[in-house]
Amino acid sequence: MCGIVGYVGEKQAQDVVIEGLRRLEYRGYDSAGVALVADGALATEKRAGKLANLEKAIADRPLPPATTGIGHTRWATHGAPNDPNAHPHAGAGRRVALVHNGIIENFAELRSELETAGHHLLSETDTEVAAHLLELEVDSGADLTQAMLAVVGRLEGAFTLVAVDAQDPSRVVAARRNSPLVVGIGEGENFLGSDVSAFIEHTREALELGQDQVVTITRDGVSVVGFDGTPAVGRRYHVDWDLSAAEKDGHDWFMRKEIYEQPRAVADSLLGRRTPDGHLHLDEMRLSDQELRDVDKIIIIACGTSFYAGMVAKYALEHWTRVPVEVELASEFRYRDPILDYSTLVVAISQSGETADTLQAIRHARTQRSKVLAICNTNGSTIPRESDAVIYTHAGPEIGVASTKGFLTQLVACYLLALYLAQVKGTRYGDEIDQVMGQLEEMPRHIEQVLAADQAVYELAREHVDTRSVLFLGRHAGYPVALEGALKLKELAYIHAEGFAAGELKHGPIALVEGGLPVFCVVPPQGRDQLRDKMVSGIQEVRARGARTICLVEEGDDAITPYADVVIRLPKVPVLLQPLVAVVPLQLFACELATVMGHDVDQPRNLAKSVTVE
Ligand code: AGP
User: Fold this and answer.
1) Domain ranges, residue 142
2) Of 81, 112, 129, 393, which has fewest CB within 10 angstroms of its CB?
């Protein structure tokens, strides 16, 4: 939610900031703006709509040269996405400019205090209040760092603030509470960004900040203090991907590129997980074997696509470990007063590592003495930092707002966790674990095979350009796949799409079926015959009512052909691993359909990549 960039160095700040905003635009695209410090004054430009509108405005009315600047790309919370509400916001005398991600909860009270004191605010945002307060502090003699420390003490809520002072071009100052911010460390230049993609073009050295810290960057240094003013040190780390990972690489969309990266992402997520003697080994597993043996219940918390990965994980965890598993939407978790204690393992799944609902659920679990294990794709993000253990997914940066390789690698991490727990608890023999690891290591090849049949799926998508409603059916591990297929279509094509457990169909949803309605059916592999046969009955039921059945079936399963209007072949894989291949055609379908419908696939309307507000 909102992308933030800050720069101080020797380059033209405008170029660095705009380029950074381009890489962060997936975080929010309701408006964009920059503020530069040039010759003792602020030079600002901001525009509603996508970054391209801001770039056009700057091309029409160029900003002066400057080497210090900040920028923002917005996902609106307070106030409509128009020019006045776009960031940066300035103080009353236009000395301080500020960008913000998050929500300042006591802004109404602060606003009325400022208005009573004669301040005239130009926007409806909570952010402008902070800009005015900050300027009052620097006007009374504080430097920007001291001013920020004074202001954060007055703010409630979650925020990342990044500010510049027209009278001090040497520094950019930021504050962080429950909202993302990382520092990029360069030579003679330093950077701030909501994530590392903001500065990956310039440096791969990064510094992770803690909560409630203020950071000051100058050309030559970075200093961090807590909100109480005591010096602090961030964790420095090297970003293990480069600029090419943040580029489209010849594809029309990041999403499409990320779909085709899945074989590699899955392979990378499996790398280095086995010791030479064949034991499973998870690097970032900071929980002792005894702590894991004590686990008698697992609760998985996540949102959206990550939640569906959690639903698949339940099948694997319960099957391999015999530990009961609940899967819960993070946004609902703490409000139901869940039963937790030291023997409950909470597994938080988040691609971004910044989802506010998931973070709050983690905090609640930890107050109840439960251990939290994060499954996350983003090094340096808040969720792994606040968890007791972490399994990183190694998908590389996921920039398309709709998650694809993030999902597949989350599935891999869930399988690894289940097998690791089975190893520690002794619920599976070593050779069984070895066998499943072998099957997992075959999955990149199987995913390649599904991707090789992309043209048939694209053709199918193009036939559905006028479709207004699509259903998805699945059973067992195929049920979350159906839900994920429907979510992809809602997000990207903006059409009615729903996923159902096939057995539930006759209890109501079958009333939706009418002549010609496309119904995707994820058919369980043969060998699980009861499951598969029941799925076949479900397919027959919808077909009898006129549905157009599009069946995802493993190769060699010809029993399904009489009931399928369209067959999409899947490789033969074990039932628990089938989601890794079955979801891929659904991703391709949604991506292509949205493309032919003329939608922005990477930045669908109303969405943002990382949802940092509750
Ligand atoms: C998926 O396509 C989404 N855009 C969304 O549902 C996402 O999975 C959800 O917001 C959770 O994000 P996280 O994994 O970064 O926590």
Assistant:
1) 3-247
2) 112
